[in-house]
Write a structure and sequence with these properties.
The protein is α/β, with parallel strands linked by helices and about 210 residues long. The protein contains six helices and ten strands, in the order βαββαβαβαβαβαβββ. The model has no long low-confidence stretch (mean pLDDT about 90).
C-alpha cells in the first residue's frame, strides 16, 4: 500500500525529498503537485514504471501522450533536437510556468516513450516540490495529469481524496496542498510558428 507524505513547497525537507527520489530510482510511481493539476509519474528511465503509469491511465504506452518534467531549460536539449533561438527565448520567458511545450524528440528519449512518435512534451512547472525531486533524481520525470472519473470535476484537487483513490495503485502520494483544477497550456513548437493546441491556465508571453 502506498503512503501519503506531506511536503511543504516553501521549504521542502530534504529527507522527504530523498525518500521520494529513492522510490523513483527503485521504479516507483508517485502522484505529486505541479503548478496546475496533480500529476502521476515515474523516472523516465524505468520502463516497467512507465508501463504502470500507462496502465493507470488506461492507455497503451506507445499511444500515450506523456510529457517530461525537467528542472530547468539546461537539460531540455538532452532529449530534443536543437531549438531555434526564438523557441528557446519563448520557453525562457514562460518557464518555470504552467505550460507544456511540444518539441521534436531526439534519440535519447527512451524507446518505450518514443515508439512511433517524433515529439516530446516538456514541462518546467513553477512548483518547488517536483522540481527539487527532479533535480535530486538527476533526470526528468514522466508526467501525465490525474483525471477524475467525475465528469463535472475534471481534476481532483484534494491530495487526501487522491490518496483514498490511489493508495493501492501507487507508491507515494505527495500532499503539497490543494492542486489547481485547470491543466497546463500546451504549445506546439514543431513548426515555424508556435501554436497553442490546448488553452489551459498559462497565458503565453510571446
Amino acid at each position: 500500500m502506498g503512503q501519503l507524505i506531506k511536503i511543504y513547497e516553501d521549504n521542502p525537507a530534504e529527507r522527504q525529498l530523498n525518500t521520494i527520489v529513492e522510490c523513483l530510482k527503485d521504479g516507483g510511481v508517485i502522484i505529486y503537485p505541479t503548478d496546475t493539476v496533480y500529476g502521476i509519474g515515474c523516472d523516465i528511465t524505468k520502463p516497467k514504471a512507465v508501463e504502470r503509469v500507462a496502465q493507470l491511465k488506461g492507455v497503451k504506452t506507445a499511444k500515450a501522450n506523456f510529457s517530461f518534467i525537467c528542472y530547468d531549460l539546461s537539460h531540455i536539449t538532452d532529449y530534443t533536437k536543437p531549438l531555434s533561438n526564438s523557441i528557446f527565448k519563448l520557453m525562457k520567458r514562460n518557464l518555470p510556468g504552467p505550460f507544456t511545450f511540444i518539441l521534436e524528440a531526439n534519440n535519447k528519449v527512451p524507446k518505450i516513450l518514443k515508439a512511433n512518435r517524433k515529439t516530446v512534451g516538456i514541462r518546467v512547472p513553477a512548483n518547488n516540490i517536483i522540481r527539487e525531486i527532479v533535480n535530486l533524481l538527476g533526470n526528468p520525470i514522466l508526467t501525465t495529469s490525474l483525471k477524475d472519473d467525475d465528469e463535472i470535476l475534471e481534476y481532483t484537487t484534494d491530495p487526501e481524496l487522491i490518496y483514498e483513490d490511489y493508495k493501492n495503485l501507487v507508491d507515494f502520494v505527495i500532499d503539497g496542498g490543494y492542486g489547481n483544477n485547470i491543466a497546463s497550456t500546451v504549445v506546439d513548437c514543431t513548426n515555424d510558428e508556435p501554436e497553442i493546441i490546448r488553452l489551459g491556465i498559462g497565458e503565453l508571453k510571446l
